[in-house]
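One such given next:

>
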Amino acid sequence: MTEKATFGAGCFWGVEARFRELDGVEDAAVGYMGGTLDSPTYEQVCRDETGHAEVVEVVFDPERIDYEQLVREFFSLHDPTQVNRQGPDVGDQYRSVIFTHDDRQHQVAERIRNELDESGRFDRPIATAIEPAATFWRAEEYHQQYLARRGGSCAI
């Protein structure tokens, strides 16, 4: 039986590519979560009209990779101290956020965020929000596996 995890860490292309590399991740799709508009488009999200974050919905086999490993990977692949940006990408659609699908995920995400915040690993406080998962709006098909199809990279 698979589970879902949803993360926002800046440009969703790079985040998706990184999660797809992990053993135990069965699928990853890019999309939008956390906003006010049903069926948002990329253009609407980028114009900051919807409040959505660019996210990656990860489908994983918890017998091969657990949620804690995914959360730790999330924190390692971006700067969780930046507010509403990652690298050159600026706006609340690029915010650092973990959308949790149940109480257990919420507790794990909070524990790891607090542990990392107290560890001194980062020069500034961690700004990552932890929120209950809302509707996942799958991004347009040309965004799915963008880096795998086109090559290149983006800031994460």
In short: The chain has a mean pLDDT of 92. The longest strand covers residues 25-33. Helices lie at 12-20, 42-46, 67-76, 103-119, 146-150. The two ends are 30 Å apart (CA to CA).
